[in-house]
């Protein structure tokens, strides 16, 4: 006669010997006297000094300066020592060599800067003078004056034929006209040199406008030759 055991009873009978064998093996390999509390105990630590503890190099956080622990105080079972008890560690010092050569003297360039500034100001002044002289040369008043001088019989007798502007070295090839021409303010005052086939002379012309709606009135208009002769044209 054959019979079958229930499945749950078969599993229990198979598992029980296996568990017993595993527990026996673990008990034989584990040393006696070791408990979980002894494994989790605090390990012994070696006493060492922090690299910057002697000089208090750590920066303060949140505006609170670092403080040294009190001497003889125990924290977590470890005795704390005074961090500032000893002197700070010496740092490396580089001494200047005794036979070091002196520093070189820097050369002053103020003369060069002064010369450049003078040259620049001189060029700017020459440009302004040339621009104002060109403005006077192109004025309608000066053109009328030179036309009258070329066609005047008195000027031809005084200076000769072919009356024109006198040459000069400072005008860069152009005649130099002194004075100013301001038609808006009603003031014209000119002085320039002319020459003919016989003589050279200086022309003086001055005209003003008394009122805003009035006409210009000639105050001075004469030619003075180099020999002293004077010709009044107004």
TrEMBL record:
Signal peptide positions (record): none
Protein name: DUF1783-domain-containing protein
GO cellular component: mitochondrial inner membrane
A Pfam family it matches: Coa1
InterPro entries assigned to the protein according to its UniProt record, in alphabetical order: Coa1, Coa1_fungi
Organism superkingdom: Eukaryota
Cross-referenced PANTHER family: CYTOCHROME C OXIDASE ASSEMBLY FACTOR 1
Organism expressing this protein natively: Filobasidium floriforme
Any GO BP annotation: mitochondrial respiratory chain complex IV assembly
